């Protein structure tokens, strides 16, 4: 979501006549788009802003703006510590950027009062290229009503707000007309999508409507909350081939006791039931997840239950973190009973197990032929290209730049824990 916000702001600035530059010293305006999901981000933000204010002393016309989730929660703190910042726009206010840019009469004019308008969910500016030429990110809803005990998102992004399906489909049709092959539907909890103009249209209904758009060949989405993950959604993924065979379903913990403390609103057994649905109905499905270790009151037995869940599910990928207490959240009031040393050792043990699981799963694919959508140059080899399978596995192979954006059949010749290596069939 933050990447898409940055993409949106870049398009707005292009609309205003700016050009992008990789050199900060050449910039007339610099926006720092911030996150606050994890602890210790504050130091990084102010260190960055400190470096930028030195640039501003050299270039008095430089405009500096701070945007995003941390900006939403700490506006006054940013203004107090960094008076050189020209404006602060929180995550819920980013769509106001065009008016803010229009009202900046001089670099010294701070924007302490933002234009007063509703926080509706808006789309990408029509006619402007996105960062990727292959995948179009499209917001379908913002905010969250779940208030998980550890999560700051409802405070930074606000309550759930779904976007009208008609607007979403119009934006995707525009992307298809610009030759985008893949669409990534974005929301803090896409499963709870409900069209505000027609409450009968659910997320599964929206997926079917997107599936009907000519030119779009793949549909991805993030993120799903397990409590709202329905069997009808599983059937929809199964029955509509453009919907990618990949689900990101954050479990956070394998212990029902910890899940209750986290206010996740499902048990381990209920989560495993949904995993069973997916594996039974869509055998080729790729499943990834998020896991937090060291949540308050997590004892060794709770951690072992998380480890056993990894072994039982055999996730294709995980994002794993040590618990970070965040202000405003319910868990911020809990005693942080797990030491940093224990958190660190549990995280290393968890990641080592997952690495073994991923390596074994990837090795089982050696010799098979898979279809990929080529979407980038390999990070490790400038002479190699990179693509993804429908199940979201990364495949590197030797190829020329003219293959970008094409669907190819690739035979897997070797594997690592995080990616596959293949050759064109």
Structure explained in plain terms:
- The protein is of the alpha/beta class.
- Among the domains are: 2-103, Rossmann fold (3-Layer(aba) Sandwich); 120-244, Transcription Regulator spoIIAA; 369-424, Beta Barrel (OB fold (Dihydrolipoamide Acetyltransferase, E2P)).
- It contains 13 helices and 16 strands.
- The protein has helices at 2-15, 41-58, 69-73, 75-81, 97-103, 153-157, 165-177, 203-211, 231-239, 256-261, 268-281, 300-313, 340-363, and strands spanning 29-34, 63-68, 87-90, 135-139, 141-142, 161-162, 182-186, 218-222, 246-248, 286-293, 317-322, 369-377, 384-388, 394-398, 407-415, 420-424.
- The strands form five sheets. It has a five-stranded mixed beta barrel. A three-stranded parallel beta sheet has the order 1-2-3, sandwiched between helices. Strands 4-7-8 form a three-stranded parallel beta sheet, with helices on one face.
- Strand 15 (407-415) and strand 16 form a beta hairpin.
- Helix 9 packs parallel to helix 11.
- The chain is globular, with a radius of gyration of 22 Å.
- The two termini are 36 Å apart.
- Mean pLDDT is 92; it is low at 114-118.
């Amino acid at each position: 979501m933050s990447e898409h916000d940055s993409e949106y702001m870049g398009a707005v600035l292009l609309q205003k006549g700016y050009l992008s530059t990789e050199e900060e010293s050449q910039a007339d305006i610099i926006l720092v788009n911030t996150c606050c999901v994890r602890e210790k981000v504050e130091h990084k933000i102010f260190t960055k802003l400190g470096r930028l204010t030195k640039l501003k002393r050299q270039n008095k016309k430089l405009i500096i703006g701070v945007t995003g989730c941390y900006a939403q929660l700490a506006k006054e703190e940013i203004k107090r510590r960094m008076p050189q910042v020209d404006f602060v726009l929180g995550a819920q206010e980013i769509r106001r950027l065009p008016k803010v840019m229009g009202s900046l009469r001089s670099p010294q004019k701070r924007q302490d009062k933002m234009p007063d308008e509703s926080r509706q969910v808006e789309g990408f500016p029509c006619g402007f290229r996105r960062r990727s030429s292959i995948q179009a990110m499209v917001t379908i809803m913002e905010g969250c009503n779940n208030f998980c005990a550890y999560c700051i998102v409802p405070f930074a992004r606000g309550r759930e707000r779904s976007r009208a399906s008609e607007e979403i489909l119009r934006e995707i049709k525009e992307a298809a007309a610009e030759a985008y092959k893949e669409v990534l539907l974005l929301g803090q909890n896409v499963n709870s999508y409900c069209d505000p103009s027609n409450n009968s249209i659910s997320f599964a209904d929206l997926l079917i409507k997107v599936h009907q758009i000519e030119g779009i060949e793949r549909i991805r989405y993030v993120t799903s909350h397990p409590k709202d993950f329905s069997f009808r959604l599983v059937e929809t993924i199964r029955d509509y081939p453009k919907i990618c065979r990949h689900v990101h379903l954050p479990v956070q913990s394998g212990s029902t006791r910890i899940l209750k403390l986290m206010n996740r609103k499902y048990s381990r057994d209920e989560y495993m039931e949904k995993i069973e649905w997916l594996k039974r109905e869509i055998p080729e499905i790729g499943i990834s997840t998020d896991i937090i270790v060291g949540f308050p009151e997590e004892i060794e037995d709770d951690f072992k239950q998380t480890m056993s869940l990894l072994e039982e599910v055999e996730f294709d990928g995980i994002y794993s973190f040590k618990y970070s207490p965040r202000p405003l959240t319910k868990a911020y009031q809990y005693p942080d009973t797990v030491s940093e040393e224990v958190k660190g050792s549990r995280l290393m043990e968890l990641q080592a197990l997952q690495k073994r699981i991923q390596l074994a799963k990837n090795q089982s694919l050696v010799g098979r032929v898979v279809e990929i959508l080529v979407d980038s140059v390999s990070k490790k080899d400038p002479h190699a290209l990179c693509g993804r399978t429908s199940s979201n596995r990364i495949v590197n192979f030797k190829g020329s730049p003219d293959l970008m954006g094409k669907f190819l059949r690739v035979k897997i010749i070797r594997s690592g824990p995080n990616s596959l290596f293949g050759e064109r069939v």
